[in-house]
């Protein structure tokens, strides 16, 4: 495989894995609960389909034009169109049985500790059952310090030698990234299992990529990051890590520059006003304003200097709705207003377009419902401006199915910086970093939906002219 092809395949595969956490229901847009009947759906739509598919659907009738919009608030109004949408997205009563089992896929991935066949993601790393149990016992019994290496602390750990030196085996577990915190992101949901099967079906999982995939997702010793070195030093300096002073000065300077760029260009968003009778012109004016602000934010962060103009422009273009959605949610939380008071187009209730959009494109008003859980997380996390600036940079750099190598390196760097800062700011036992970053795929999914609805809005307005 050529280098460029291998890079593309690896990037796509990693992005595929990162997308398993949280997505909207493909039927109504509510937060999905998993992979049901062949599609990503919420519990309500799953149960509706199961009730309908056994002959109940023949009774359904649409009193309109069989094109009723199906959203969380309208899904119960037309059973015919809801069932039609279930069928359109591929929901079926019988699952395909030709796909390999998830266990079989994982068996092809070597354990990151001993190279035996792995059984899944355990404590944040792809490992076998033996190493999973070993690590759990060592942590639970709090006895790692009781074991000493009889050689030079560099014993080889493989399938045949893993039981010879517990000290070196435990150090190997730590070196590949196993941790108690990782256990919460190591559980495999039905949606994750489906993603793995889909990757295998499309040829994205190949034996030569297994180590690359597990390294990208779990290996803390990536050459492009400095996270583990900094974190280890911080732990030695201060066990509590409740202050940013434990971070290196250069890292603090980078974080400060990101914070200043956020305050200068994005903190006061969303806010925009226009006086025109042309709805599309108003929307374009607003989006242009937002894109300029996002581009200024990117240009204000020296880390982005490694990217060429084309990469910067592409990132801004693809991520603008993710960034703006984050800004809306942050403003909603900080202003302590009900999250039902905002709409994505930022239309005032006095606007002449307000009622038209609410009736014809209710999606822009229902986003507050889709982001309710996310806003609750943000409210509990109580992010400071530095953390907001960092998560915004991640929303920008983590967008897209394919990224150039500089973008991938930049993304890894921002993940590391955010982890180091939140660890220093909130303590080494805090899980806030995982709670925050796990929502990134969800925000990007809404980003794609917003783009689709804006296109539909433009087409609707063009036809009405």
Automatic annotation (TrEMBL):
The keyword Zinc applies. Pfam families: Hormone_recep, zf-C4. Signal peptide: none annotated. InterPro entries: NHR-like_dom_sf, Nucl_hrmn_rcpt_lig-bd, Nuclear_hormone_rcpt_NR1, Znf_hrmn_rcpt, Znf_NHR/GATA. GO terms for biological process: cell differentiation; hormone-mediated signaling pathway; negative regulation of transcription by RNA polymerase II; positive regulation of transcription by RNA polymerase II. Residues 22-98, 108-185 form the Nuclear receptor domain. PROSITE patterns: NR_LBD, NUCLEAR_REC_DBD_1, NUCLEAR_REC_DBD_2. Residues 247-465 form the NR LBD domain. One of its GO terms (molecular function) is nuclear receptor activity. SMART domains: ZnF_C4. Keywords: DNA-binding, Metal-binding, Nucleus, Receptor, Transcription, Transcription regulation, Zinc, Zinc-finger. PANTHER family: ECDYSONE-INDUCED PROTEIN 75B, ISOFORM B, NUCLEAR HORMONE RECEPTOR. This is Uncharacterized protein.
């Amino acid at each position: 495989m050529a280098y460029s092809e291998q890079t593309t395949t690896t990037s796509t595969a990693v992005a595929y894995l990162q997308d398993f956490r949280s997505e909207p229901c493909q039927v109504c847009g509510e937060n999905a609960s998993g992979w049901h009947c062949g599609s990503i759906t919420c519990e309500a739509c799953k149960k509706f389909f199961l009730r309908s598919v056994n002959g109940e659907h023949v009774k359904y009738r649409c009193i309109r034009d069989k094109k009723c919009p199906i959203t969380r608030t309208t899904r119960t109004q037309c059973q015919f169109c809801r069932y039609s949408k279930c069928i359109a997205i591929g929901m079926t009563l019988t699952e395909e049985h030709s796909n390999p089992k998830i266990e079989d896929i994982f068996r092809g991935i070597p354990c990151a500790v001993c190279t035996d066949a792995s059984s899944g993601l355990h404590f944040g790393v792809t490992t076998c059952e033996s190493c999973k149990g070993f690590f759990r016992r060592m942590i639970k019994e709090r006895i790692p310090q009781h074991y000493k290496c009889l050689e030079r602390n560099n014993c080889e750990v493989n399938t045949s030698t893993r039981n010879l030196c517990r000290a070196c085996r435990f150090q190997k577990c730590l070196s590949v990234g196993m941790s108690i915190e990782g256990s919460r992101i190591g559980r495999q949901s039905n949606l994750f299992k489906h993603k793995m099967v889909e990757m295998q079906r499309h040829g994205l999982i190949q034996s030569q990529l297994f180590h690359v995939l597990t390294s990208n997702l779990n290996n803390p010793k990536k050459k492009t990051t400095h996270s583990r070195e900094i974190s280890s030093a911080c732990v030695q300096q201060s066990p509590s890590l409740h202050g940013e002073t434990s971070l290196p000065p250069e890292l603090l300077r980078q974080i400060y520059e990101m914070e200043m760029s956020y305050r200068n260009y994005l903190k006061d968003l969303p806010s925009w006003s226009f006086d025109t009778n042309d709805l599309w012109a108003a929307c374009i004016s607003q989006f242009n304003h937002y894109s300029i602000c996002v581009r200024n934010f990117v240009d204000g962060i020296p880390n982005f200097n490694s990217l060429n103009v084309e990469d910067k422009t592409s990132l801004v273009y693809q991520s603008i709705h993710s960034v703006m959605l984050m800004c809306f949610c942050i403003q909603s939380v900080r202003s302590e207003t009900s999250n039902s008071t905002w709409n994505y187009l930022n239309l005032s209730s006095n606007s002449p377009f307000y009622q038209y959009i609410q009736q014809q494109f209710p999606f822009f008003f229902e986003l507050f419902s889709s982001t309710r859980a996310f806003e609750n997380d943000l409210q509990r996390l109580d992010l400071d401006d530095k953390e907001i600036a960092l998560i915004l940079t991640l929303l920008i750099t983590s967008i897209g199915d394919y990224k150039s190598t500089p973008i991938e390196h930049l993304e890894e760097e921002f993940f590391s910086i955010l982890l180091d800062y939140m660890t220093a700011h909130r303590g080494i036992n805090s899980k806030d970093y995982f709670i925050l970053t796990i929502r990134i795929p969800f925000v990007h999914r809404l980003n794609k939906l917003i783009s689709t609805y804006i296109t539909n809005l433009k087409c609707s307005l063009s036809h009405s002219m």
